[in-house]
Amino acid sequence: MTETSFWILTALSAGARHGYAILNEVAELSEGAIKLRVTTLYASLERLERQSHVRVTGDEIVEGRARRYYEITDDGRAQLEAEAERLAQRAAVAQARIAAQTTPARPVAARPASTPGTAFSPMANTAAPA
């Protein structure tokens, strides 16, 4: 599932919304990280509708402008739940890895200082003439 689809379905999981409300909800839910363009939103909604993840619930005219309302389907909700679980599992793996790092990483062994006019030779671990 794309990140765009994830956020659109997440916005619709609270109830039917029209396009502009979905744009605002996605921006709010993602704390501003996702700012969908209108063309991206409607292309994604069309794809999600073809996949039976959303459906149109109705149209209305508000202040002379048409609004189309969308809602998440049962299949869309199941897909969203599966994706949320997958993301949670990945986050848990990362958090466990971070938590396991309780001891500082081993410091890299300092290499011996070379004297002027000599080059360091890592194979011999000694300074060799330049």
TrEMBL record:
Low complexity bias: start-end ranges: 103-116
Protein's recorded name: PadR family transcriptional regulator
InterPro entries in alphabetical order: Metal_resp_DNA-bind_regulator, Tscrpt_reg_PadR_N, WH-like_DNA-bd_sf, WH_DNA-bd_sf
Residues of the Transcription regulator PadR N-terminal domain: 8-81
Pfam families attached to this UniProt entry: PadR
Biological classification of the source: Bacteria, Bacillati, Actinomycetota, Actinomycetes, Micrococcales
Disordered as annotated region, ranges: 103-130
Record field: transmembrane: none
Source taxon at top rank: Bacteria
